[in-house]
Amino acid sequence: MSLNSSQVSWKKHFVHTGEKGAQEFSLVLENTNKHLKTMFETASKPYSGLSPDLLLEQINRVDLTNGGADLSDIVAKSVELIGKNSILVQHPNCIAHLHTPPLISSIAAESIIAALNQSMDSWDQASAATFVEQKVVDWLCGIYQLGRESDGVFTSGGTQSNQMGLLLARDWIAEKISNHSIQKMGLPDYWNKLRIICSKNTHFTVQKSASMMGLGEQAVIAVDTNSAGELDIAALQIAINESKQAGLIPFAVVATAGTTDHGAIDDIDAISSIAQNESLWLHVDGAYGGALILSGHKERLNGIEKADSVSVDFHKLFYQTISCGAILLKDRRHFKYLLHHADYLNREHDELPNLVDKTIATTKRFDALKVFISMQSVGAKTLGQMVDHLLVQTQQVADKVAQTTNLQLLATPSLSTVLFRLNHQGVENLDVLNQKVRIEALTRGVAVLGETTIDGQSALKFTILNPCLSMSDFDNLLNQINQLAQELIDTSSLV
To answer: Are both 169 and 248 inside the same structural domain?
Structure first.
């Protein structure tokens, strides 16, 4: 039976198998790439400088109801409206967050991922893709030396990885204490005694995970850090002892390999020894600093091989497009706490692997392909050299900040962040000055700077991730920041 007229018209909206089945697809991609190429090559700012109100107004004018417009025109208009008014992570002055310029290899992989549209829950939806993800996971477990019983699965990033690591720890301790299955029976009657211990600089997703797991943020004991921003080992032991004496049940400790602001790396080896002695689950949040494993500084991650779970975030210093992360386990058997068989999806008698068996997600992207392709193209050695370069350059930038008039360096860099503060003499409220410089730099398109609080004071932050920047780029940026600050002082009531 032939197609009706509506079906014939619908065909142009899809990619088809067979001769000329991808012709329209090829033309659309070629047109899209042409407009993106022009956008990148003509960009002079990290943000256009269009006022947020006007940008919102223009986006809200777009008609999403009627359809029927020419796709080539829509792509051109979308690049003009959205692309040109996006935060361009490739620009030298985009330096606020753990938000990297992605590798071209990763962008190419994204095209394949989108076109194939594999769903990573079952082998019959992701045949080759399932094996690719397992290949990359096995490689990761190897470079982190987690042992022969290790395994992992890809996630959307550090938040999901941290949540999974702590969720598995929670279920593990319940089974260990009372042979209780939280998966089948819900929280045990001692749930409000369970405690997770971390530093005060640990990522907020630890508290968020505790809340989502039904333990509440009260389950998190945040202990003091040392002068370098690392978890204080003596304070950790005291917190464990005091919580046990109070009748509480500490069950997990989180070590951070790269805190968001300071880039501090906890002493994972010392923490792992305490965790082993106290029978605690050790989770390492390696979202930021985990890429050091490829660098000449991998000894800073000593002890990570003893972790029960490790978060890895590829859309940071592995330079992959968002989103791309993984959770690794030292003992794959702990994935059993997530296992649920569905008759239509991952049957008990299935012989081929179904990745839904070890994840909290069902439909899941084929993000492993990005790492699979990038490691063949760029390679682990080159990525490690990029990280090594960033650590050296970050210290050079910090030295430059310390030598620059009206700037105060607030901390010695640990990874690739530089914390500093405008400290112009005669300004009554320096917090307001730093806050205004950040937002004005953003909305004018001068620079995308980080803002945080250090010792109760507003501070600015460079998060240096682009390995292709020169020191002259930073000289220009610091000059622009100082000029903007002086302009705001001269034209406002800050003095």
So the answer is: yes
